[in-house]
Predict the structure.
Amino acid sequence: MISLALPVLGTLLLLQDAGCTRPQPATLPPAPTSTVTTSTAAASSSAPAAAPVQVGAAQFDKYLPLLKGKRVGVVVNQTSTVGRALLPDTLLSRGVNITAIFGPEHGFRGEAADGATIKDGKDARTGKPVRSLYGATKKPTAEMLQDVDVLIFDIQDVGTRFYTYISTMHYVMEAAAEQGKAVIVLDRPNPNGWYVDGPVMEPQHKSFVGMHPIPVVHGLTVGELAKMINGEKWLAGGKQCQLTVVPVAGYTHSTRYQLPVRPSPNLPNPHAVSLYPTMCLFEGTDVSVGRGTDTPFEVIGAPTQPSTRPYSFTPRPNAGSTSPPQNGKLCYGQDLRQTGNDVGFTLKYLIDYYQQSTAKDKFFGKYFEELTGTRTVRDMIVAGKPEPEIRAAWEPKLSQYKQLRKKYLLYPDFK
């Protein structure tokens, strides 16, 4: 994911992961003092103001007592903020004994390029060891946890099965279950938590970008998903970890949550986050989603598309994508920046781009099934099936998932 400058926010400066023809600024707003939301329904002038959302990390009374006298490991990145400070700084200032910081994809500071190997190191500000969970080791080893009693997971998710932070959470929970460590998930809102959609992953397509039998858009917060993983015994050997979830206050699944910090370098604004569930499927094709441009996940195109398409761009290496797909090639496609933030999940672009491809035999790659979680989508698109018919094929398993999901909800559901 492309590494654009993160907001300069107090200690975010001190503590640090998915050029075009018409570049636009792509930044999230500065982090507010307290996290706020907007509602899907238009508020009437007489309606009371909605209570501000308070993330789990900000509710110290709910979890600080659990850390007293414990050696604490924190699984965090640049999104792990309380107000304007990163969680490790805040906990250290409150006397918590942090013995290790664990970094996921894109690293502890969230600046590493997509797919880049993250190395172990030391945080210059705190002097605490930083241990990588995205490189040779994705699951904490016994050695990595020998000085840890409790693991805190506090990372912003975007609500899709293939976003790797939830895979990191799975492995953290699994290692904790095997090694007798406690896990505390400090929950955060899901910006795509207002709906559930897409095919459910089939076991034969399990990978680091899809570890659970859940749909593309799972409609859960990380805390709810952690409860599902534990409750359904999806950890290796059917083990369960000692899990505590600190819920978000003032949140429902109808809440539209604007992220105060970009969740990863290639998701630079709320619109990209909204398009991500749909656009990410193109990562398993020859179509670029704008990595190596200023507008990742807001534009699509490929050299194998008709030159009559209304938009074109050329991916170039940058800090967030050192070798972007279709590097240096003129891509013909679309600019989707005006589609709005409530587009939901759709196959219409994928079907269109396959049908218009001048090299259909090279359109799909092996990675496509890891993203969709099923071979059915590819086969039906190749067969010329329309989206409603493809959706009907995944609907039975999706309906089963929706029933399962209800068991683990911590918040009022969307209607």
About this structure: The first helix runs from residue 60 to 67. The chain has a mean pLDDT of 87. The chain has nine helices and 16 strands. The longest strand covers residues 97-103.
